[in-house]
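ok so I'm stuck.
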Amino acid sequence: MRNCYRCDNELTEINSSDEHVIINACGGRLKSKRLLCKTCNSIFGDSFDNELAKATNDLANLLLIRRDRGKPQPIKGKATKTGEDYYLQFGGSPEKVKPEIIEKVDGKNVQLKISADNEKQAIEILKGLKRKYPNLDIDNVMQSAIRKEGYLDDTLNFEAHIGGLDVFKAITKTAINYYILNKGDNVFIKHLLPYLENKVDLDVVWLHYPAKYPYKYEENEVTHILQLVGDSKEQILYCYIELFNVHNYIVKLNANYTGRDISCQYVYDVLHNKELKKETPIKLNRERLLDLFDNKDAKPFEIVQEKYLRVLRIADEKQVSEQQSKLISKGIENSFGKRAGEIIDEEMINEAVDAIMKEVGPFLIHRLRKNKK
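replied:
not stuck anymore, here's the structure
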């Protein structure tokens, strides 16, 4: 067993914590019980990890990333045509932030018109209205409600964030975790701990988007990348971190490094949940590393936009594939499910095809309309 890199107490089965190197919210699978004790992990708290989770939630949601626990939160966006606010749920379903509720009072008569995105939302609205109108029969209303299925014929716009002080602290913690995981000596990262504990301010993290990035992505690859370098000759210890191939950072762990030479990388395919054996050729000497912080790139927006659009295209293809699979499964269940045990004949096959097209057809029409815009 190792010692906790913060307090130096020996890690045991009782006091060790299962720490993700890349946070669970990003679908990180690399983790270890040989990094922090439970007490120190709680002292660091989840505050800055939560901010990183918020900053990457849009991509985690759109890419349908599976976590060890929980799932990405809804994304709030605004419809281009109507200006209405929507939540895009995990899985692609849009829901209005404020459902339509119209109340018309004519003497003692009250007419209510409610437009909700699902039954759960409708019931919650009716429960709220029942406090105002005690005679409201929720069960009767739900039985008489008209149910329609359709697709949002509009574009949703979302805000995206790639930095911030708490995000930088979470990225620093990721870099430290990866360094310690690779048998790094905690003496070289001790000066960073007060920074994580909000006791001092340090300039150790910045965005890093090389104009000529030598790493080649496969066509539909979305990855998390960690590259750790310790160079005793240059006296530098740094970590390059890339999340979803969009959020790119460089962490200056130590500019007076005298430890052992280190060169290791981790590339994780978030769509197929597997580690890739690929080289990450980000190599910096001392002069270049320090220059990245002395002369910060304040406007990497064009590169960020290019990276973001690439991943959004992949996310769109994944969403379409997942939705088509769900609709096909639903059509098959609607057809064969009610005739379980019967011998499959031509009539049943034709019925299944009709049931599948009934589900898939509206979706394909929606996609064609979208692609024409």
